[in-house]
Amino acid sequence: MIYTFQISDESTQSQSIINMLLSLSEDYDFLKVVDDHGELSHEREEELDRRYENFLKNPRSGKSWDEVKRNLMQE
Q1: What is the spatial distance between Cα 75 and Cα 67, in angstroms, rounded to a whole number?
Q2: Does the reported pTM lie above 0.90?
Q3: Number of domains in the chain
């Protein structure tokens, strides 16, 4: 199981926790600290671009949100 925590670095308390986790991650290989700033990975950006291009070429091939919800509720 993988846990994800979002910690804002706007306060001294949160900065203290971040520093502690960074320090712990040096000693324990099961702990990984990722500073992502909410940016997309290159792979995710390419996938979104591919999906957008597909939408532009086939705008009627998708489903409305109501249709997706209805299908999910039936399962």
Answers
A1: 13
A2: no
A3: 2
Using CA atoms, how far apart are residues 73 and 67, in angstroms rounded to an integer? 10
**Same domain for 8 and 29?**
yes
Convert the pLDDT of each residue in 4-54 to its tens digit: 888 888 899 999 999 999 999 999 999 999 887 777 888 999 999 999 999
- Do 2 and 27 fall within a single domain? yes
Q: Are 51 and 58 in contact (CB under 8 A)?
A: no
Same-domain status, 2 and 32: yes
Domain housing 67: 42-74
Q: Which residues touch 9 (CB under 8 Å, ≥6 apart)?
A: 15, 18
Q: What does the alpha-carbon distance between residue 63 and residue 38 come to, in Å, rounded to a whole number? A: 28
